[in-house]
Amino acid sequence: MSKQTYRVCFCFRRRFRMTASEAPKEIKNLFDQYSENGIMDADHLQRFLIDVQKEVKTTRDDAQNMIERCTNELKHLNIFHRKVLNLEAFFKYLFSDLNPPLESRGVHQDMSAPLSHYYIYTGHNSYLTGNQLSSDCSDVPIIQALQRGVRVIELDIWPNSSKDDIDVLHGRTLTTPVELIKCLKSIKEHAFVASEYPVVITLEDHLPPNLQAKVAEMVTSTFQDILFSPGSECLKEFPSPESLKKRIIISTKPPKEYLKTKDVPKEGEPQKEKTSGENKETPAWGREVSSLKDGTVTDYKQQDLDEDSNDEEDPEDGDPKSADCTQYIAPEYKNLIAIHAGKPKGGIDACLKVDPEKVRRLSLSEQQLEKAILTHGKQIVRFTQRNILRIYPKGTRVDSSNYNPMIGWTHGAQMVALNMQGYGRSLWLMHGMFRANGGCGYVKKPDFILTPGSDDEIFDPRASLPVKTTLKVTVYMGEGWYYDFHHTHFDVYSPPDFYTRVGIAGVPADTIMKKTKTLEDNWVPAWNEEFEFPLSVPELALLRIEVHEYDMSEKDDFGGQTCLPVAELRRGIRSVPLHNVKGEKYKSVKLLMGFEFV
């Protein structure tokens, strides 16, 4: 790998010297400081782990065990001698999977609080394999979501063509259906593969009473004793994730009438309005997430905010949708519902009214949320302290793209529903959020969002708050592209020109992106650049990291990404694995980075 040749034309070739992956100057200086005669033994490594990595509880035995793990797991490199580390071995250790950026503590948050105290990993139209108009419906994306740790699965249930069974499909579109029973069986089989904490099935119900009764029979017979069924009455308080381990929960609106007309669009259904703020030439993953700053919605036109999406799951209670309806007669279906959904009459004030005697779930579109927070931000936060708020994508996202989930999370919304097949920056934020708490799909909301009080005491994410801490991020170098990509993938005529984007997603005051310089013609870029991020709400901050390859004539190429919860970052020098557009980890691509809180 000393030199690499690129063919420019039939008679001309360009040759480039290949840079070997070697320790940056800062790493060499640290090794010199914490070693003796070019050797780092257990005592030296212990001091390094305590002083630099801030692993203050490290014992000498811990350090010796780490050297032995390096010897065993990296022995193919043939650089470990007498169970001590030389410079090359120390560098390889720092850049290995033995030195991850996040704490490996498993589930470590308090899981005994009510469900409303947690952010919950939530999918939208979980059965769709692609776009919202014509893709196949299948249990495969449901299985994939559960395997990733998603805890809320959405199913739209409709009568089949013969009106004697139930299909799952996106209504009034060209999507091909999948049988409900197949989806239910797949959920049962895969629900607790990635996490033992409860799975919530939200149902979009478009059924007559006789088929609702059939759904009740299917659900009961499929899930049996793992189904959580508290009865037909609303809960006074939600139970905890701990008490609902390995349980299935049904959430929908208690049915009162059956809609026979087909003129009312469902929530998130494609509607006749123009998309806004999207460059059609930009690939879906490349669209930057929208944000709220200075009290304005930056990614939507005003008319978008004035038109609330119709929501068939949660229409205003008591507002008949059709004169041609049949009274509900299937109590066994109603008794399945553990989390009652509903949207009271009276507009946003009525929707956000907190009832001390019962709890419920409210659904709002992304547009409805962004409009509401301009005038009712603190009421939303107060509502979510006891009740569950679900946010879903606007109906014009027919390509299954997504919106900025931080807007919902910073206002306490528990179920921020994204299209799991809508790969891009919004979904990367979702992946990052739920890497926290052992990846169990439930992340405890910060105490300040849960603290009741007057309007002056309720958390306001748009308020100007003092800086709590500053995160210093050092981007040392990267490697692995040479092994995971073809040598002409980024540039036909030369090695790639990489740069790194690093920044924060969080409350508006903390949200920012910065970038390194571009290093030309280098498969192993060593940027050695430091960035500082003042954080007013570090508890809600996510660290965004992207690598791109600069292209003068076309759009820059994608070189990897990850997103990490700031609250769980390990201080010190860490190896940060990067993922592809879909969120799948590359085999070799990673960055060497430093994290420090000051």
UniProtKB/TrEMBL annotation:
<feature type="compositionally biased region" description="Acidic residues">
    <location>
        <begin position="305"/>
        <end position="317"/>
    </location>
</feature>
<keyword id="KW-0472">Membrane</keyword>
<dbReference type="GO" id="GO:0006950">
    <property type="term" value="P:response to stress"/>
</dbReference>
<dbReference type="GO" id="GO:0004435">
    <property type="term" value="F:phosphatidylinositol-4,5-bisphosphate phospholipase C activity"/>
</dbReference>
<feature type="domain" description="C2">
    <location>
        <begin position="451"/>
        <end position="580"/>
    </location>
</feature>
<dbReference type="GO" id="GO:0005886">
    <property type="term" value="C:plasma membrane"/>
</dbReference>
<keyword id="KW-1003">Cell membrane</keyword>
<dbReference type="InterPro" id="IPR000008">
    <property type="entry name" value="C2_dom"/>
</dbReference>
<dbReference type="InterPro" id="IPR001711">
    <property type="entry name" value="PLipase_C_Pinositol-sp_Y"/>
</dbReference>
<dbReference type="GO" id="GO:0016042">
    <property type="term" value="P:lipid catabolic process"/>
</dbReference>
<dbReference type="InterPro" id="IPR000909">
    <property type="entry name" value="PLipase_C_PInositol-sp_X_dom"/>
</dbReference>
<dbReference type="Pfam" id="PF00387">
    <property type="entry name" value="PI-PLC-Y"/>
</dbReference>
<dbReference type="GO" id="GO:0051209">
    <property type="term" value="P:release of sequestered calcium ion into cytosol"/>
</dbReference>
<keyword id="KW-0442">Lipid degradation</keyword>
<dbReference type="Pfam" id="PF00168">
    <property type="entry name" value="C2"/>
</dbReference>
<keyword id="KW-0378">Hydrolase</keyword>
<protein>
    <recommendedName>
        <fullName>Phosphoinositide phospholipase C</fullName>
        <ecNumber>3.1.4.11</ecNumber>
    </recommendedName>
</protein>
<dbReference type="InterPro" id="IPR035892">
    <property type="entry name" value="C2_domain_sf"/>
</dbReference>
<dbReference type="InterPro" id="IPR001192">
    <property type="entry name" value="PI-PLC_fam"/>
</dbReference>
<feature type="region of interest" description="Disordered">
    <location>
        <begin position="258"/>
        <end position="325"/>
    </location>
</feature>
<dbReference type="InterPro" id="IPR017946">
    <property type="entry name" value="PLC-like_Pdiesterase_TIM-brl"/>
</dbReference>
<keyword id="KW-0807">Transducer</keyword>
<dbReference type="GO" id="GO:0048015">
    <property type="term" value="P:phosphatidylinositol-mediated signaling"/>
</dbReference>
<keyword id="KW-0443">Lipid metabolism</keyword>
<dbReference type="InterPro" id="IPR015359">
    <property type="entry name" value="PLC_EF-hand-like"/>
</dbReference>
<dbReference type="Pfam" id="PF09279">
    <property type="entry name" value="EF-hand_like"/>
</dbReference>
<dbReference type="InterPro" id="IPR011992">
    <property type="entry name" value="EF-hand-dom_pair"/>
</dbReference>
<feature type="domain" description="PI-PLC Y-box">
    <location>
        <begin position="363"/>
        <end position="449"/>
    </location>
</feature>
<feature type="compositionally biased region" description="Basic and acidic residues">
    <location>
        <begin position="258"/>
        <end position="281"/>
    </location>
</feature>
<dbReference type="Pfam" id="PF00388">
    <property type="entry name" value="PI-PLC-X"/>
</dbReference>
